[in-house]
Amino acid sequence: MYVFNPGAIKYGDEYIMMMDVGTLAQPIVLWMARSKDGVHFTPDPVPVKWPDSDPIHYEDCVYDPRITQIGDEYYILYASSNASIGVRIGIVKTLDFKIFERVSVGSELGNRNGVLFPEKINGLYCRLDRPFGNPREPSDIWVSYSPDLVYWGRSQQVMSPRTAHWDNHKIGAGAVPIRTEKGWLIIYHGTTTTGSGIIYRLGVAMLDINDPSKVISRGDDAVLWPEHPYELSGRVDNVVFTCNAIVEPDESVKIYYGAADTCIGLAETRLSDLVDACYHQNAYILR
Length: 287
Ligand code: BMA
Prior knowledge:
With 287 residues, the protein is mainly beta.
């Protein structure tokens, strides 16, 4: 069994994790686990009871859930895949992590890594996503807006892969953006190709608080990369991949992440260190 790429959020006095669970015999399903301390989790006895497919997009596999709280509601943006048609971003909501209600098939075909901001921006819901429509490569992070979480538009490119960096191949939004005094902190994944396959790492950037299409600063270096055996080798080797990070009241940050598409890791850091990393430039990178 493979358990990976968790969305995670605090709900009441619990930490909730919703993750991809797959076996060799069945497609991935979403499963929840709960914890009192954010470290020791107990899985639910059965998978999440996901709402029926939208009539216009039958989904045969769902994965990579990102959970965003807005008011009392929790929105889950996830990859909604139909094997013969393609992948879209699905949107489901819940009030209690027991009953889940479909909001919309939230994107056109050929999009995933959808991440909803935790508040409206200029009166509109706002999400980062990763459309595949780019003629060069399926690679960039974009931003889109919606009045109702159904109709999305005003799409704009935010960031692209960078040459001579760890994220020179593909990038996609990871954790739900975190509001800071300097702007929206994003933790994203970036890939590079090597002779023995792709490496997934995590990096950070700061986006303008009122216009997230504007990148204020982007750290040169990755902040998390595969280095431990369980990250280097598994169902897919050399992967760290995040969907949510939790900022604690003391401004420590828990980054939950999938390791090698096989198991789940927890990396801890401080909010100030992640913010600093957005401004860190590496003298050794050729420009
Ligand atoms: C991405 C997604 C993730 C996965 C990653 C590494 O494209 O499919 O679910 O963790 O690849 O295999």
